[in-house]
Specification:
single chain, about 20% strand, about 375 residues, 2 domains, binds zinc ion, alpha+beta, 15 strands
Length: about 375
Amino acid sequence: MMKIIQTVIEETSEQRAILDENMARMSEAQNFAVSSCYEHKETNTFRMHHVNYTILRERFGLPAQLAVVANKYACAAAKTALRKKRSRQPKFSGTSIHYDTRSSTINLNKGIASLLTKEGRIKLTFSIPKYFQRYTDWDAKGSNLVKCRDGKFRLMISVEKATAESNKKGKVLGVDRGINNLIATSDGWLYDSAHVFSVKKKYVGLRSRLQSKGTRSASRHLSKVRGREQRFMRDVNHVVSRRLIDSVGENGVVILEKLKGIGEARHRRKQNWLFSNWAFYQLEQFLLYKGEEAGVAIEFVRAKDTSRTCSACGNMDRGQRQGSTFSCKACGIILHADLNASRNILHKYTLTGCPVNQPIAPQMS
Ligand SMILES: [Zn+2]
């Protein structure tokens, strides 16, 4: 798994001069190498390396590893331009340099990068914005040093984490997504959606008032309200997905229903307009990526009959569900309806591959 984190270099004025100079020389060298590609009608990195290397070292004073990088990126740019039949030669503007693990060493925890320049390696400190701090224990790979329009140098660092794939031998959790309860899990957690609904309702009302006004300031306000509403839902989904992933832990499995459209069948309820498919889709996406980080597998089962089957005895009948209560006509068990559904989702997964003469549902205590 890979991410790119954006850090801000906090350079001294002396270092700034070195970085500026280095960037200027690097772009000159790359532009020379591009011309050389055109001249030799060749964009193969290895063949052009032999043509350019000595010149890049001697004329432009680049250290060995930067000469290699300059040639490599020049060849790639020339290749793209020729393939797309662009009339003009590509030109490097001197606003970014690529660093690989041979031309840089990055310590994310200490916020220190050692970058190769014409003057040798220089040690730079950088700050990591709060959002990206969650990745500081990942492995730093390559990076791009960029001089931004605001005049600041930023280091865009590719970070990688070896993801542990779930062996699926840990805890298995069935998850039902619904309307009255946003989430019900087979181990008994219910996330009541009352609060989410009341907040959503407030936003929906505010939006429709603003829409009917139709003035320019109303439409500006409207887009702000939309943003706030989306952030609210995203926060809810972050909290829910985090809790689900943490509750199964490494090597666990989270089972969800494959939902085709929330508008269909069992989800066709009055409050539907409040709750978009998008929110459910986003929750799935969050679970998938958080699961990948934590070594938790996310599996899907078919939604069919999960709400009208008894999770204790397997009896399937209409009318066993009354509002939020499920009462089985066969074995008489009374359960919370969403909880019953989440257990059925769990069983659909755990029973896959069982011999057909086995009971359909296991005995639940
Ligand atoms: Zn039953």
